[in-house]
Amino acid sequence: xxxxxxxxxxxxxxxxxxxxxxxxxxxxxxxxxxxxxxxxxxxxxxxxxxxxxxxxxxxxxxxxxxxxxxxxxxxxxxxxxxxxxxxxxxxxxxxxx
Length: 97
Prior knowledge:
With about 100 residues, the protein is mostly beta strands. It has one helix and six strands. The chain has one helix at about 10-20; strands at about 25-35, 45-50, 55-60, 65-75, 75-85, 90-95. The strands form two sheets. It has a four-stranded antiparallel beta sheet, with no helix packed on it. It is globular and about 40 Å long. The mean pLDDT is about 85.
């Protein structure tokens, strides 16, 4: 009668396998650069992302290069608006992330 020999790490794999499911991320990032019509960066512009399903809002300010990053946003559909002194507000709806 033969006996099947199992690898000792097999049980460890089975014990920790469910933990791998927690590594999945349900957030997103929106990033970009705000410029004027000539391509010059706009410093200190206010960028607002509003989650259309929950009404949650996240706001950041552009850096000296006009760059912004909105991290850890819940997945969904957003309205993005940008405001800066001396410029008309820019708005885009229906952004899926």
